[in-house]
Amino acid sequence: MDSLQLLLDGFASALTPINLLYALVGVTLGTLVGVLPGIGPAMTVALLLPVTFTVPPASAFIMFAGIYYGGMYGGSTTSILLNTPGESSSMITALEGNKMAKRGRAAQALATAAIGSFVAGTLATGLLVVAAPAVVAFAIAFGPEDYFALAILAFTAVSSVLSRSVVRGLASLGFGLAIGLVGIDQQTGQARLTMGIPQLFDGIDVVIVAVGLFALGEALYVASRLRHVPPEVIPVGRAYLGRADWARSWKPWLRGTALGFPFGALPGGGAEIPTFLSYATEKKLARGVAREEYGKGAIEGVAGPEAANNASAAGTLVPLLSLGLPTSATAAILLAAFQQYGLQPGPQLFDHNPALVWGMIASLFVGNAMLLVLNLPLAPLWAKVLHVPRPYLYAGIVMFAALGVYALNASAVDLIVLFVLGLLGWAMRRFGLPVAPAVIGMILGPMAEIQLRRALAIGAGEVTVLIKSPIAIVLLLLSALALLTPLLRKLMARRRGERITPGSHPE
Fold first, then answer.
1. Which domain of life is it from (predicted)?
2. Whole-angstrom distance, CA of residue 53 vs CA of residue 63
3. What is the pLDDT of residues 77-114, one digit of tens each?
4. For labelling alongside 424, which of 31, 173, 372, 492 has CA 20 to 30 A away?
């Protein structure tokens, strides 16, 4: 009952006129930026972080929630109409959705994506209401060694899951940890990696890192590969579903939600696995016309994965809000947003800032409803946004990012750091290094260092204190598993190849 009462209080906060306005602005901006080609929810939130710098915390996070879900909605529009997924979790939506659009069913593809996102987002947010307080109750027992082990789990899980190779993921993580070391050491008072520049003594602002690596790095990378041929945008009318489409979509929506939420809540679970699982499940269950349409634009192949994608988005908020553990790139940017306001997600956030947390959770229900109203009738308008010339689009992103960062402190040093990090983000994409581990390393690195020092101080310098807690042991074992799983998969694949006997291929 406590959670229900707190949620009702959250609705009282979210439904005030000013917060409803912030929610509407958030979902509109999120959809607008998320619709643009190659821009996913993570980049959307990162790009708009500086905009909310002067907004009160509760209103800002209601707006962030709208931006987050709006970016997810917008990404499906790009995937369906342009075959350009904003992030890897939208690849399956693009696979079947774009084929539906080419068959003249763009309106139905957009409608099942929008309604499926609404259904999955609403159900998953309800599960968030139940799950987050339960995880908080468990996390209260955490000691310094447990939080350090939790940070190690975040590092290893994100580095191994969000990268094509563990080595590249760990290399990206190393960049992030190095950026997090910049500034004055809190214990010794010594300056670290500041190169004698006074403006760096307080460290590099998380907003600058997020905008530089995500927004600016992505803009520079896309601009460097820019083709002058305008994108072919498939025309679309008002999004709607017929009776047969409803009958074929509602079960995939529910199954996608059931798959997406738990994977989103797992460290390193992400949205990629549940979207692929949803696609495979719907393909296996397909009968009759649906089976014939798979690979040619089956509506089940859009409905299920899109629901799984949005349900996993709500799932990522469980470890983020209750443990301060980001399990996706977008969650890492949201963690940066919390730190922008001097807040640290975790058990204390629920105790000290219940109005902010529950107002944000309640706003997810409100934002979902707003997005449904915005996306169904306004689909042709969002499609027109895709006609913006690419050079103007990415030049605008660079200018917007620079203005936003300069507005933080009115410092030229911040701009220099922004462009250096933007070039680093471009180089990382150019050479196949994932960006998310770097951002998570920068954000969680200082916390991991503080907790490690506290644990060692309590244990009088004995390293064994790090494995005395059962919670820490389990978390460290999970970290080892996250690192070893990709290597074991490669070894098993190699062994399967070696099992082929010479006689099995007659010459």
1. Bacteria
2. 12
3. 878 877 766 666 677 787 788 888 888 888 888 888 88
4. 31
- Least confident span in 288-292, 303-307, 498-502: 498-502
Nearest to 197 by CA among 399, 436, 417: 417
The alpha carbon of 69 is separated from its chain's Cα centroid by a whole number of angstroms, namely: 10
* C-alpha neighbours within 13 Å on the C-beta side of residue 443: 34
- Phi, psi values for residue 191, rounded to 5°: -75, 135
Other beta carbons within 10 angstroms of residue 351's beta carbon come to 11
pLDDT of 118 > 80? The answer is yes
Contact (Cβ atoms closer than 8 angstroms) between residue 367 and residue 27: yes
192 forms bridges with which residues in the sheet?
183
Q: Which domain holds residue 164?
A: 2-490
Q: Is 367 a domain residue?
A: yes
Kindly compute the dihedral angle of the four CA atoms of residues 465, 471, 476, 482, in this order, to the nearest 10 degrees.
-170
Structure tokens at 349: 């956030």
Q: Are 259 and 306 in contact (CB under 8 A)?
A: no
The tally of domains found in the chain comes to 1
The yes-or-no verdict on residue 37 having pLDDT over 70 is no
Is residue 430 one of the residues assigned to a domain?
yes
Between vectors from CA 103 to CA 98 and to CA 106, what angle results, nearest 5°? 55
Extract the tokens encoding 505: 């291929």
Residue 184 forms beta bridges with which residues? 191
Distance of alpha carbon 329 from alpha carbon 148, whole angstroms: 20
What type of residue sits at position 43? M
* Among the listed residues 371, 111, 387, 28, the one whose alpha carbon sits nearest the alpha carbon of residue 235: 387
Question: Is residue 162 a contact partner of residue 331, using CB atoms and an 8 Å limit?
Answer: no
- The answer to whether position 253 is within a domain reads yes
The Cα 30–Cα 26 span in angstroms is 6
Is 349 contained in some domain? yes
Tokens 């470890």 sit at which residue?
319
DSSP states of 133-196: HHHHHHHTT--HHHHHHHHHHHHHHHHHHSSSSHHHHHHHHHHHHHHHH-EE-TTT--EES-TT
pTM score of the predicted model: 0.75
Tokens, residue 373: 């109203």
